[in-house]
Specification:
- Keywords: Membrane, Transmembrane, Transmembrane helix.
- With 274 residues, the chain is α+β, with helices and mostly antiparallel strands.
- It has two domains: 66 residues; 180 residues, Jelly Rolls, CATH 2.60.120.260.
- Helix content is 25%, strand content 26%.
- Strands 3-2-7-14-10-11 form a six-stranded antiparallel sheet, with no helix packed on it. Strands 1-16-9-12 form a four-stranded antiparallel sheet, with no helix packed on it. The chain has a two-stranded parallel sheet with strand order 4-5.
- A hairpin with an 8-residue loop joins β2 and β3.
- 31% of the residues are buried.
- Bound molecules: 2-acetamido-2-deoxy-beta-D-glucopyranose (4 copies).
- The site of one 2-acetamido-2-deoxy-beta-D-glucopyranose has 6 residues, from loops.
- One 2-acetamido-2-deoxy-beta-D-glucopyranose binds next to loops.
């Protein structure tokens, strides 16, 4: 019986029309007011988004303009302005941007921990580095670029010693900096051609004095952190070391590589200050 009555009601066209009218007319005033309030809220939200969207890039551009030599990536603005291929999460708060004095990063070969630096030049012969893969590419924050030094070999001449005892040094534009961690990043090649053992030395000297082995103090000599292959254009594990003295210059050397590999290449050396 109940079902039948419901059906009769539902099928009654007059009843249905009245219901519709009631539904449409009664709440219309309230709905209008609600809509007005909603419009107001939506407009305010959109306006805020537009203002924030214009303000933030302007502030970032201004900051860029007034900061010619970048410091650490420790502030949130630096994280957004350092427009590198690394994602924001990959940029560690403690990573030091390796901007060199006069943007000069010096390649070296036949160079040993504590020993004098032998300058490497661009070219394809013994003791040279690939002109397009220059030492500054290891410090540019871009894992798409790389540094290849042939060391005791020449381009297309391969041996177990190629690329060993090579590296680079630079004077940090930001000045005296405490470094107590490093990471090395691989290139786009699939071979395990990254270094396996590396060293980092620090110095407070400048200019040609940096070619002297006596100017350098050893801070780290050990694994590169690449033994668990991180993958192409990815960085190895962080090597943390105990250092409490700040230096203005740093020298990085490759001391060993995987057996059978005929060259050494890496995309980045990242230095950290904790
Ligand atoms: C930032 O990087 C993007 C792509 O990653 C590029 O299109 C853009 O030009 C870069 N901007 C600056 C200021 O370098
Ligand atoms: C990184 O290097 C690659 C290859 O040279 C280049 O195409 C790209 O624009 C560079 N990215 C940045 C952010 O400079
Ligand atoms: C650093 O020093 C601490 C305390 O002196 C020690 O426990 C730790 O093993 C040291 N780390 C390295 C890498 O030498
Ligand atoms: C290098 O300079 C820094 C800062 O002036 C100083 O703290 C540190 O002791 C110096 N290092 C050496 C080995 O003289």
């Amino acid at each position: 019986m109940a079902i039948r009555r419901f059906k009769a009601n539902a099928n009654d066209p007059k009843l249905m029309e009245n219901k519709k009218k009631n539904e449409q007319e009664k709440p219309s005033h309230r709905q209008l007011q609600k809509r007005k309030i909603l419009y107001a809220i939506v407009s305010i939200v959109i306006a805020s988004i537009v203002i924030v969207g214009i303000l933030i890039p302007t502030v970032v551009i201004k900051k860029n303009g007034t900061q010619p030599s970048p410091t650490t990536t420790s502030s949130s603005t630096m994280t957004t302005t350092s427009n590198m291929t690394m994602t924001t999460t990959e940029i560690d708060m403690c990573m030091i941007l390796l901007t060199a004095v006069q943007r000069k990063v010096y390649g070296v070969h036949n160079t040993f921990v504590g020993g004098d630096s032998t300058r490497a030049t661009p070219g394809s012969k013994r003791g040279q580095y690939s002109p397009e893969d220059s030492p500054d590419k290891a410090c540019d924050g871009n894992v798409s670029t790389k540094y290849i030094n042939y060391g005791s070999c020449e381009k297309m001449i391969f041996s177990d010693s190629c690329g060993l005892n090579t590296g680079f040094y630079l004077e940090l534009a930001r000045g005296s900096t405490l470094i107590n961690g490093l990471k090395i990043c691989l290139t786009g090649l699939s071979c395990p051609c990254g270094p396996t053992v590396v060293s980092l030395e620090g110095s407070n000297m400048t200019g040609t004095d940096l070619t002297l082995g006596s100017s350098w103090t050893l801070l780290y000599h050990g694994t590169s952190g690449l033994s668990d292959d991180p993958g192409r254009q990815k960085c190895g594990s962080l090597q943390h070391f105990n250092n409490t003295i700040a230096y203005t210059s740093y020298r990085f050397l490759v001391l060993a590589k995987n057996a059978g590999e005929v060259l050494v290449e890496y995309s980045e050396v990242q230095l950290y200050s904790f």
